[in-house]
Prior knowledge:
This protein is 32% helix and 20% strand. The protein has 102 residues and is an alpha+beta fold. Strand 3 (81-84) and strand 4 (87-90) form a beta hairpin.
Amino acid sequence: MTCQKAQGFLGQGAVAVAETVDATKVRYAAADALKLLDGVATLVAAKGKRLEVFDLKTAKPDDAVLLAHLLGPTGNLRAPTARVGAVLVVGFGEEAYRRALG
């Protein structure tokens, strides 16, 4: 459901998506999820109405904290996950997407 909300939000703003990966077909476990952070300065994690922002350049948390925000209950990367420049957004929340795109 949240992936559909993310697609709808991006479609409203006419945002071009460079690459889409189907989370039901491609799995990202812990090591793969952490690799996604290479070159990322900010991690924005949305869960419901909660929004957490991590500055990975100046105050990078340990891997356990990062994985708690990157992985879902199945142990795979949470969807939707979007990279916008040096910002990685995990989960969907309009505020998270506005922050990454603005």
